[in-house]
């Protein structure tokens, strides 16, 4: 019997470590054994989970190398990205300010 490969979990976080976007697989991985739809205030829960479990204690701008979810281990990789510079409408000097984001990918580690 052939099973479909596990899809990676993807999370986009901003400089304050708040979640900008995520896919359903990331929610499933981080919420296990609970189901994401059963978690109240999912956005706040996810932000707290990321700050507690995915961010290195020594450097808030780096994610851990791997996490465990039940019997599975997931590799954590991060990719910094910059949004195109935009002029802020309420900027006093009219200068553009880049917004930095971090894409975090959770991939199941092959045993």
Task: Supply database-style keywords.
2 helices; 34% strand; globular; 5-stranded antiparallel sheet; 19% helix; alpha+beta; two-stranded antiparallel sheet; 111 residues
Topology diagram in text:
Layout (H helix, E strand, L loop, with lengths): L8 E6 L4 E4 L1 H8 L10 H13 L11 E4 L2 E11 L3 E2 L8 E2 L2 E9 L3
Antiparallel strand pairs: 1-2, 1-7, 3-4, 4-7, 5-6
The arrangement of helices and strands along the chain is EEHHEEEEE
Show unreliable segments.
89-98
Shape: globular
Structural class: alpha+beta
Number of strands: 7
How confident overall, as mean pLDDT?
80
Largest sheet: 5 strands, antiparallel
State the strand order across the main sheet.
2-1-7-4-3
Beta-strand proportion: 25-35%
Classify the helix fraction into a percent range: 10-25%
- The end-to-end distance, rounded to whole angstroms, is 19 Å
Number of helices: 2
Rg from Cα: 16 Å
Question: How would you describe this structure to a colleague?
Answer:
The protein is α+β, with helices and mostly antiparallel strands and 111 residues long. The chain is 19% helix and 34% strand. The protein contains 2 helices and 7 strands. It has helices at residues 24-31, 42-54; strands spanning 9-14, 19-22, 66-69, 72-82, 86-87, 96-97, 100-108. The strands form 2 sheets. Strands 2-1-7-4-3 form a 5-stranded antiparallel beta sheet. Strands 5-6 form a two-stranded antiparallel sheet. Strand 1 (9-14) and strand 2 form a beta hairpin. The protein is globular and about 40 Å long.
């Amino acid at each position: 019997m052939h099973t479909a490969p596990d899809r990676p979990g993807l999370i986009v976080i901003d400089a304050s470590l708040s979640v900008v976007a995520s896919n359903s697989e990331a929610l499933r991985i981080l919420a296990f054994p609970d189901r994401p739809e059963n978690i109240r205030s999912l956005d706040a829960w996810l932000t707290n989970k990321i700050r507690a479990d995915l961010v290195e204690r020594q450097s808030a701008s780096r994610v851990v190398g791997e996490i465990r979810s039940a019997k599975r281990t997931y590799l954590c990789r991060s990719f910094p990205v910059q949004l195109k510079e935009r002029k802020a409408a309420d900027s006093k000097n009219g200068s553009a300010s880049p917004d930095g984001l971090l894409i975090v990918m959770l991939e199941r580690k092959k045993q």
